[in-house]
Design goal:
Distance between the termini: 61 Å
CATH topology of the largest domain: Rossmann fold
Order of helices and strands: EHEHEEHEEEEHEHEHHHHH
CATH class of the largest domain: Alpha Beta
CATH architecture of the largest domain: 3-Layer(aba) Sandwich
Helix content: 40-55%
Largest sheet: 5 strands, parallel
Strand content: 5-15%
Strand order of the largest sheet: 2-1-5-9-10
Number of helices: 10
Number of strands: 10
Length: 328
Amino acid sequence: MAEFRTIVNVESDFKISYSDRVLMLGSCFTDNIGQRLAQAKFPVTVNPYGVLFNPESIAATIENGLNNKIIEESDLLLNGDLWVNLDFHGSFSSTDKNEALAKMNLASQTLNKKLSEATILFLTFGTAYVYKYSQTNKIVANCHKLPGTSFQCFMLKPEEIADRYTRLIDKMLKLNPNLKIVFTVSPIRHLRDGLHRNQLSKATLLLAIEQIVSRFQQAHYFPSYEILLDDLRDYRFYDTDMVHPSSLAIDYIWQQLRNSCISPADNQLIDEITKIETAANHKPINPQSVEFQKFASAQIDNIKKIAQEHPNLDFSAEIKHFEQYVKN
């Protein structure tokens, strides 16, 4: 019988292991996959500056990290009663100027450290449209709800993006020659740009990435956009806003990443960790019962066995959780 869907067969030329140190930057889709990696206890850092959508803002953020940029008062803007920075997500804003600066500089220091340590860098592009702030003539990462008249919106060209990242990757590889860079395009649709403009934007990102990957042996592409748009291809796999992928779709893309990029041995470890996390999230009907105490004790023994085999993994929170149910 003929297939009733188009299956995207992912053949990856890069691998992820528990010995890797992963850094992820980009759109909120990065947060979703980064969360899956974190839950599986991979050493991963996700969006130290907050969510980033366009390639230029991601590139500028990386350069800030490479240069260990110090965020100063002159980099802040008072918007209402909040001190904001147009390079940072709104979660870094504060009514206290010093608090905002402290959070931003901590993020910048973290990014600098992770860029030098990372073995895999995931970059997820969301849109090719950018907003240039008229007062500084700089492309911003976040408009912070400033008046639209303060910005000029335009779309980057594939060649601009590719050339920008060619220079940037050269810099990164000088600092960190072992770095592998994985590009992906977020399947999240930017409907405020309009359906046609959104398609033009995604096509621009795909063309740019194709050029970048062809220039660097260390650069790779993972087809998260194609998996959702061409494989799943149904509103069942979107959240209630009909824009963002549903948790089911994210799980499917995560499984595709696991199947194509993670070894069978590490996948087995992920399954074991998932079982532990599921057990830890289980709410017992009677936590004082002998049966549940035996269950908790067995979980601790299992965790300690895995931890002994993988001493680089931190299970302290899970052990503490189950120990509260075990009577001495």
